[in-house]
Amino acid sequence: SNALSKRSASKGFQQSEERFRLSGTFQSVMNSSEGLGFIPAIRPPPPIPGGFFVYLLLCANGTFYVGSTNDVPRRLQQHQSGTGARHTRDNLIMRLVHTEGPFSQMMAVRRERQIKKWTRAKNEALIQGDRWRLQHLSQSHD
Known about the structure:
Blueprint: H1 2-23, E1 27-28, E2 52-58, E3 64-69, H2 72-81, H3 86-90, E4 95-103, H4 105-116, H5 120-128, H6 131-138
Antiparallel strand pairs: 1-4, 2-3, 2-4
Helix pairs in contact: 5-6
């Protein structure tokens, strides 16, 4: 019975990961095209057995922090209490503004590294859910 529930959870996780890859869905904050302005916090997704999430935080100084974890609510609490990453310890009062997943751990780390290389404009387009702008910013303009 326990093996069956683990298989079911694993199968559900794999289906969720596949759905994400196919649809490109994610939870984000939608704002007007006039810039980000005030970005409200979004609700962290609940932990999913075997699932990892990529998340973006907006820090007090206006910078973004990108991370990955298997438990976004717990990790957010760590950041807010000053026991998270150095960047969020130095720039408290952050809000969760974007999440993606669930992924396998390897895919979450890969996606985190990808987003960390992005410009602020690309991060803003991602948070706004502006797929056209995100694609435009991703193209080479040589």
